[in-house]
Every structure is written in C-alpha cells, then in structure tokens.
Design goal:
The chain has 276 residues and is mostly helical. It contains 12 helices and 3 strands, in the order H-H-H-H-H-H-E-E-E-H-H-H-H-H-H. It has helices at 2-10, 20-32, 37-56, 86-98, 108-121, 125-129, 164-174, 191-208, 213-220, 239-250, 255-262, 267-274; strands at residues 136-137, 144-147, 158-161. A 3-stranded antiparallel sheet has the order 1-2-3, with no helix packed on it. A hairpin with a 6-residue loop joins strand 1 (136-137) and strand 2. Helix 4 (86-98) runs antiparallel to helix 5, helix 4 packs across helix 8 (191-208) and helix 11 crosses helix 12 (267-274). The chain is globular, with a radius of gyration of 21 Å. 28% of the residues are buried.
Length: 276
C-alpha cells in the first residue's frame, strides 16, 4: 500500500520515472501533510525495498534509490500519548454502545467492539481491518486472534492471546458475519477522529449528569475523557495500544512477556514509550 501510494504521488507510469528527487518530493508531501518522521521513514523504506527488489530481480540495471537517506525520528516533535484509565473505560464503552450519529461509519455496538478488541489485543487499526471470523479461535486455551504476515507491522504471522471474557463477547458478535467477511472493514480511515468524537460526546454526557453546579465545576476541572489532558498528552486510537501495554505492565508481567505481547523489537520501546 505504501509503495502504491508513493508511485501514485510521483505520477510514475514507468520504472525510470521513480528517480531519487521525485521520490523525495513525494516523501516531503507526506511530511507536509503533518505525518511524523517515523511515518515518512516507513514509506521511504517501502519504496526503497521495492527499488532494491527490482534491481536484484534484474528488472532494472541499477538501484536508483539506494542513496536516499532516512530521517532521524528521534528529533521529531511528537505529541506524547496517554492511556485510558479504568474509570474512563467503564464509562466510555457502555456509552459508545448506545451512541450513533450520522457521522459514524459504524453503529455504536460495532464501534464499542472495535475499541474492546483494540484494548484487548494491542492491534493497530490496519491489523483490525484485516480480521475475519476465521482469524479467531475462541475455543482455544487461551482464545487467540491471528493477524496474517501481510497485515502485521512486523510482517510476521502474529497469534495473539485474548482474555476469555473478551472471547465470550466476541462469539455472538462474530456469528453474524461470513467466514471470510471483514467485520472491521468499515472502520473510518481517521480512527483518531472517531475516538475523539466519542470521547467528546461521552464527556459532555458525563458533565451533564452532574447533580449540582458545584459537582459540574469540579468535573470540568478534571481530565476525565479528555482528548488532550492538562499536560498536553493526546488520547488517539493508538492510545488503545498504550492502554493495552500499560495494563500488562501494571499486572506484574515480566519484561519479556510485555515485549512479546506488545510485539516490539526491544523492551525499551515497550517499557519506555508505551507503558504509563
């Protein structure tokens, strides 16, 4: 998908049109659209890998993109993320189940299941969209969900264990879909906006439920269900992954177990960035 995006952005119809300068311009367009340097590096690795394959498969006489250099993502200014608290989850999920507006791609019950599965697996949005009922083995011990290598970020077959209570919630919900149908295919591309709208609506309802003016003012001073808290930390869809990892760490699992379940290359990433 990333290669196709770059090729389309370059307007290339022939291999020779994928020159370093044109590709650099396409990557710059991604950066100018507000994407992180880490994301730009991901696109750059994809198109460079494609160019390298064309060269090794003797479809081109040279590797034209070999000299392109990636970015130092550590210098990028990122919005720090936060996790959902247990109290926020206890309020948000039942609210989402009952709330659907014309702007939503998915009805409330389905959006709530998206959130529950993201929170129970740590799967990214693209991985969730790839799932079919065949991806689930709810009778296993423990139950599992499998992401195929083509959709996993690390390009491996990922078999993720899930809690039995989540499996029981999924069982009747999945029954309405065909074996190879994708229940989450209708997830909007802007998953961060989807969650932000649900958080905003849930917070408005929560504030409205205050019984006195004093209680409402007290609630307004809190960060409960806020998309951005007082410290500037953002709660977007990827924050569900932070919540998943934080819960595993809080549960006392070993560093190795946390890293394996987070599917990270290093424990530093798991504990240092994703655990709160």
């Amino acid at each position: 998908q990333q290669v196709e995006f770059i090729v389309a952005r370059c307007g290339a119809e022939f291999i020779k049109q994928l020159t370093p300068s044109v590709v650099q311009g396409a990557i710059k367009g991604i950066r100018d659209a507000g994407r992180s340097l880490e994301t730009c590096n991901s696109y750059l690795r994809a198109i460079k890998g494609f160019a390298r394959w064309m060269w090794t498969d003797k479809r081109t006489s040279d590797n034209a993109l070999m000299t392109l250099q990636g970015f130092n993502a550590d210098t990028d200014k990122k919005h720090p993320r936060r996790e959902l608290t247990a109290d926020e989850l206890a309020y948000l999920l039942p609210f989402v189940e009952r709330h659907t507006s014309p702007a939503h791609n998915l009805p409330g019950r389905d959006r709530a299941m998206v959130y529950r599965l993201a929170l129970g697996t740590g799967f990214r949005a693209g991985e969730l969209r790839s799932l079919t009922p065949a991806s689930f083995d709810l009778d296993a011990d423990p139950p599992t969900v499998t992401v195929t290598a083509g959709y996993s970020k690390r390009r491996r077959l990922d078999v993720q264990p899930i809690r039995p209570d989540l499996a029981e919630l999924l069982r009747p919900w999945l029954a309405k879909y065909g074996h190879n149908e994708r229940p989450f295919a209708a997830m909007p591309a802007a998953t961060a906006r989807m969650l932000r709208e649900d958080l905003d609506e849930a917070r408005r309802r929560w504030l409205k439920e205050a019984k006195t003016d004093a209680e409402r003012k007290e609630r307004e001073r809190t960060d409960f269900l806020k998309h951005i808290d007082a410290d500037g930390r953002v709660l977007d869809f990827h924050g569900t992954r932070h919540t998943y990892v934080s819960a595993i760490v809080a549960g006392g699992a070993s560093v190795k177990t946390c890293q394996e379940l987070a599917r990270h290359s290093t424990p530093t990433l798991t504990i240092g960035r994703y655990s709160h």
